[in-house]
Amino acid sequence: MLSSPLILAISRLRYLFIHVIPVLVAAITFANILNEFGVTDRALWIIKPVVKYANLSPESGLAVITYLASGNAGSAMLAGFYEQRVIDEKETIIASFVSSFFSFLNHVFIYFIPVVIPLLGIEAGVMYISARMFISVCVTLTAITAGHFLLKNRSSAELKRNDRKNTPNTPVRRKEAVKKGIKKSVRVLKKILPRLILVYAITAILLSYGFFRPLENFRIFNLPGQASAIVAAGVADTTAGFAAAGSLLSSHAVTPVQAVSALLLTSIISMSVIFVRHSLPGRIAYFGVKLGFKIAAISSVLNIVYTALVLALLLH
């Protein structure tokens, strides 16, 4: 005969497999198929006023545009223009941060909507995405303002010509687009699902057996003790943090505001780890040691400052 805590844990896992995973699989597959059909490319016109106000060159503008479709492609393009001395160091740094919001839009389509919302639910998911959007908008506006005052004024006529020249006109075959989208989805799901199930299961079991009860009197910035599970899981792995938050939200152990606050706190705490493991190596790979370190360091500082601002507003 199963004990009641174990039955409760199984019930939470049943919720994961019935309500979370099917939505997750469908959303990721749908997002990748739409991306293969070039939906992102059709939104490129929105970047032109930004490029003009920030005084970016046509080359930097094209790189920023590319971040909508792929962060790696955008960084590679920007680094290529820098290596060719088409743009200088100052413009490269500013352009890399102007791209923050556009890179965020790419993540909304590929990761936040198909992954975060199914894990956190509509209320907490939208709240978290809105918080991340505010942060990315602040970074982009900071860079645009810096470009407006620090870079020389440039005409956008060449940008328009290059934009037309580089915009793909060949339609993608429907069957090929669907196949490519599904293949990409399978690769992503192979990484996400095992990690998701493991973390959700462990959190559900620990919660059912009262593991977090001793933490109930422990507070971090007015957050309940259970929120420490989100922080611990999120520092180890980003998706794991969302999975832990989703598990706690489904059992009403934390509120949406508390879950989102814990996730934002996690991003601040893990910023040094992200800097060493991901941001710095990635930037150096594209821009070299000196410039790569500058961009990675500024990125960490800006994200910490604006994330702390949003966290303070939520906790207030």
Contiguous runs where pLDDT drops below 50 for at least 5 residues? 155-169
Note the main sheet. none
- The count of DSSP E runs of length 2 or more, i.e. the number of strands, is 0
Please state the overall shape, judged from the principal axes of the Cα atoms: globular
Average pLDDT figure = 80
Kindly, what is the distance between the CA atoms of the first and last residues, rounded to a whole number of angstroms?
47 Å
Radius of gyration: 21 Å
Structural class: mainly alpha
What features would you highlight for this structure?
316 residues; mainly alpha
What does this structure look like?
By secondary structure, the chain is mostly helical. Helix content is 78%, strand content 0%. The chain is built from 14 helices and no strands. The protein has helices spanning 4-36, 48-53, 58-66, 71-83, 89-98, 100-120, 122-150, 157-166, 174-208, 227-236, 238-250, 256-269, 271-287, 289-315.
TL;DR?
This protein is mainly alpha-helical and 316 residues long. The protein has 14 helices and no strands. The model is unreliable at 155-169 (pLDDT under 50).
Please give the structural blueprint:
Blueprint: H1 4-36, H2 48-53, H3 58-66, H4 71-83, H5 89-98, H6 100-120, H7 122-150, H8 157-166, H9 174-208, H10 227-236, H11 238-250, H12 256-269, H13 271-287, H14 289-315
Helix pairs in contact: 1-6, 1-9, 3-4, 3-5, 3-8, 4-5, 5-7, 5-14, 6-7, 6-11, 7-12, 7-14, 9-11, 10-11, 10-12, 11-12, 12-14, 13-14
